[in-house]
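Objective 1b: paired records.
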Amino acid sequence: MSRCRATWFVTTLLSIIFGITTVVWAAEKQEAKQLDWIVVDTLRPLFETISANPWIQSILVILITVTCASLLTWLIFKIILAITQRTQFLFDAQVARLLRPPIYYTLVVIGLTAGIGLMPLTVWKVHLIRIIRTIGILIWVIFAIRLATLLLQRVAGLSDKYTFIQHRTVTLFDNFAKIGIFGAGVYAFFVVWNIDMTAWLASAGIAGIAIGFAAKDSLSNLFSGVFIIADAPYKVGDYIELDKGGRGKVLNIGLRSTRILTRDDIEVTIPNSIIGNSTIINQSGGPHVKMRIRLEIGVAYGSDVDKVKRILVETAKADSLVCSSPEPRIRFRQFGASSLDFELLFWVDNPELKGMVLDSMNTAVYNRLREECIEIPYAKQDLYIKGLPEALSSVVTDDSREPPSG
């Protein structure tokens, strides 16, 4: 019995609470409806005024868009910064700061375009919208140029990783990027102003062909210079030799030509197109700057080969201009027509010293072989006469007779 009373009491209490809650909610809802009607009745004249006046609508749209542009720009900037924190090269904080103004002004341009579209203008509306869109294009062109310059400078700073773009070629690629961006901006300008580009493109094509034929050699040198700098077959300070002639130290690598200094202290300017079509021997290339020199020596048949090898190696080691590491080497190459042919191999620190070292080594080898009584042969020919004509033979016989005595 007590359990039934407790259950009835709880049920009754819950029913009372539910009823009170329902009544209160209904009352509040009715009051809210009355309040809504009051607000609507109060603001209805304002709404009617705004709806009837397109100028006010336009101004409100512009103000709301500018406000939303600030908020959206701030939000987008925060998102971009969060992304740039995970990168270390392309998308960093500096790029994000460059991106902030064009995003803001783009949203403002959208708002201005929408606001002007609501204005009761007939003739000037289209022109104002086009002017505003042109300003937006100009903003993005400026941003793209600054971004391209920044990225090229960053890439040039990593020349060990990106060899194609270096500090010497940043200006060239920056100009190419500016020309491309400016061309894209001009195209967008023509599209906004609804200008037919057919005649312009045809004229540009004809002008490009004419300029290409007129500046064929200059363009050839220019592109060869770009590929030489990018491929880096040699660098400033290297000692190079061309198969078409020319040997010297590289002083400067330009976009049009390369300047080298010969051993005669004469500066020679070689067009890059010639270098691009030549086989380049970089005597300073390889794992180290040292250069190996080959000196050919011939001694007479019958000479002691082991003694000759020892003398030649000792002579090379005694020269102060010859590198001690790697050590000089001697090779017995062949049996020549009149000599035993050896080849002495030794290294010098700088290819520039080749002529000087050859002079000193030739002198030292000659003097040492002379001291050791080792003959350096020269080409000799023995002439054997098998027979002579009869007339000539009688003359020779008469001349060869001894004169009579007394």
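Objective 1b, second protein:
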Amino acid sequence: MKRPQVIRFAAFVTVLAVLLGYVVYHRTSPDTAVTARGGVTAKVQQNTTNLENYFVNFRMKRDQLMSKEIATLQALIKNSGISKAAKAQASATLVRDTQELKQETRIEGLLSGRGFPLSAATVAGNQVVVQVGAARLTQKQVARIADTATMVTGLPPQDVVILPKS
């Protein structure tokens, strides 16, 4: 991936995270959580909002850290005072980090489409950690999440960690 593409991709991901936060913030209002009897439940609304905020904040922090790391790696690559081996290592790290970020975003998008709108994925080397906004997960749900992560990353299911978050 060329440097301008990486910069555009990092900017796109950051803007996407901010827009997602904006949508979640404005979509949730005090009167959206309605019980089966027709009453408004403030506690349910608060828990849902807290959970949504957790995932939005998680993604935003991840994207900010990734943007800083990309900027650092690009500075190393441009630095004429470091060795070619160090530049090659920085380039390889930049490519790997960009690919992992792309996989994380793809996993989260697919999980959202498969019924898990509140999720966050972290790909690091040979492991995927997926957090899902649910108190409990059935075996079928776990299998669907693991299948999504393995399909995107190519890693075996035993390298996928799934954490329910409530």
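Residues 3-165 form a domain with the Helix Hairpins fold (CATH 1.10.287.4300). The beta strands are 119-124, 127-133, 160-165.
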